[in-house]
Amino acid sequence: MSDLAYVLRQLPRPHDANLLVGDNPADDAAVYRLSDDLALVQTVDFFTPVVDDAYTFGRIAAANALSDVYAMGGRPLTALNIVAFPVKKLAAQVLVDLLRGGSEMATSAGVTIVGGHTVEDDEPKYGLAVTGTVHPDKYISARGAQPGDVLLLTKPIGTGIVTTALKAGQSHEAHVAEAVRWMTTLNRAGSEAMLSAAAHAATDITGFGLLGHLTDLCAASEVSAVLDSEAVPFLPGALEYARMGHIPSGTRTNLDFVRDRISVTPGVSDLVLALLSDAQTSGGLRIALDPHGAEAFARHAGVDLLAVQVGQIVPRTDRGVQVRN
Ligand code: CO
Ligand code: CO
Fold first, then answer.
1. The domain over range 150-324 is classified in CATH as 1.10.357.10
2. How far does residue 261's CA lie from ligand 1's centre (Å)?
3. How far does residue 206's CA lie from ligand 1's centre (Å)?
4. Does the pTM of the predicted model rise above 0.90?
5. Complete edge-to-edge strand list for the sheet that includes strand 19-21
6. Could you say which architecture CATH assigns to the domain 2-134?
7. pLDDT tens by residue, 253-288
8. Ligand 1 centroid to 91 CA: how many Å?
């Protein structure tokens, strides 16, 4: 993450008054104003399989890519497939299943897949480039969190650890099924709920983990946060798999990266910190809103949408996030 930030800093920065949200690392998608009441939301995401089944992977990758538009409060409209595929090693049916999964997820979101591009590669990779729209005054970025805001989380944490246990052949079927259920749940309901609850700031939780995305949001909003580690919902089995050592390398890198940006109460274990840093695929939204907004949001909660209060925004201190137990 830090290496990539270094590379990006070497590139010329775009100068365009219509670019409302650009390359801030805390934000999920770019927002580009077309007119006074219409802006484009654009994002791209693709990655290597997190589950064995191509159809399920297609669904997860599509839900994950669409999430960055939802995290900005946008409405996704169209998408392009991005595929890397070992044409000589894997059967064509695998590719059909993969794309069918992506297509079905897009359709369920009301999104039309309008094309795409495939390259030959040793390892499959799949995702979408997504285009959506938002009102240029109404998108929700990582900026805007205010002291006194409540932090809500809409999905449990731990998909990186559960899928690592799966790859090691050490996972229970029910635990994987629950992780897959959440990874294939669109953040659409959460996005609509946070718009109606007048949220101040939001991001989705993906590769940098809960702590990484939260420290980024705090930096972007010039505030700090108190995270109540015992309130954070973990996927069933995740803590047990972390204890067994099934912690992905990306999760360890995340924890190394945030160490000097957080303060940790002595009672918080390293295992819990690993979970709070776990690299998520198609994770939930983490939303900052005032207490009234949090109440309004909670009325939308259900089996596919959590509204768990995991902490508060506080005035800026020297550490971005205070992790308490
Ligand atoms: Co994102
Ligand atoms: Co993304």
1. no
2. 20
3. 6
4. yes
5. 19-21, 30-35, 38-47, 125-134, 75-85, 112-120
6. 2-Layer Sandwich (3.30)
7. 999 999 999 999 999 999 999 999 999 999 999 999
8. 32
